[in-house]
Amino acid sequence: MTKILPPRRTGKGVPPTSAQVVYNLDRREACTLKPLNFKVSPEFHREFKAYAAVHGLSMVDLLREGFALVKARRG
């Protein structure tokens, strides 16, 4: 027979009081990157990655530059 143990405590302590978290949703996000997930064909991915590499750009920088051009053209 297997003995079932009680759940382990995480050691996080007690939650903050409501007075401590009044503005917790109004804070700006830290300067971190957020994932932008979408699927492309393997051929497009290969071409995009190769173009970025040949021109010494990261794929993110190439996407940003392309998006800036589209915004400038379309308004």
From TrEMBL:
InterPro entries: Arc_rbn_hlx_hlx, Ribbon_hlx_hlx. One of its GO terms (biological process) is regulation of DNA-templated transcription. This is Uncharacterized protein. It comes from the Bacteria.
